[in-house]
Amino acid sequence: MNFLKIKSAWIAVLIVCFGFVIHAGEDSTHSNLINILRIAVVSDTHVNFGANQQIYASNFKKVISQVNTADVDVVAITGDLTENGTRQEYSEFQNLVKNFKAPVLVLPGNHDIGNKKQGKTTNEVSAERLAIYHAVFGKSWFAFKVNGFKLIGLNSCLFGSGLDTETEMWEFLRFTFEEQDPGRVLVFAHYPLFVDRVDEPGSYSNIDPAYRSELLALFQRHKVLCYCSGHLHRSITNNFDGILCYSAPPVSYGLSGQKVGWALITVSNMVVRIEQKFIAP
Ligand SMILES: [Fe+2]
After folding, report:
1. Which of 29, 106, 136, 219 counts the highest number of beta carbons within 10 A?
2. Does residue 4 lie within any of the structural domains?
């Protein structure tokens, strides 16, 4: 571990080239100690027992092998662990995921527990499906400190659901940010906050504006470094007021020509670097 002093005030830089994203922010209110954190972001594994599973499982095993070689501190899997959220699929997911060497944090996606509630959406998130997820994995949100960084995971399918668990998660989130000093924070969830514009309307692809605004206000106040999601089956990179908003490539199948793979996030003090890692089909 290095212990270097850095003097400059808040800066934010975003550089995207050849699949690398470097984001630098620094705030004199945070510790000047430099810690290094390496996170593998893995998303949309869609484990199932259908015709596609042979391909999806093969992709997943290749990703696990690459991640193990990369020697990361932690693996964050940002939802759509399975295709249908059944106990059998979760069991098969766990059979695969146990091969990661690093600790694994998981979050649910809409395929696991149901779509976010929006208008006449079918297959909405339900207490019954969420109960199965909670029985298998425990709480569908988390906060862990790793190498001096706070990793906060959210169940983004819950926003707007009206379920009791949504209220419980908001209480957890406000407590984590407002009543504790969260320090340097990276947030993980399934749904992106937004895809193209921060003021875009709610859709199947994003978090609805009311919850997006509340989350972003919270993240701005606490100078969150990065918000990592999945769901789109293609990677996107946005920057909102110094917050790097990134959606990782999928493990199972890509859309819009997206290659399958994962992302290595390296955080050094207030600098976030993202390297996308693709696998051969
Ligand atoms: Fe997905």
Report:
1. 106
2. no
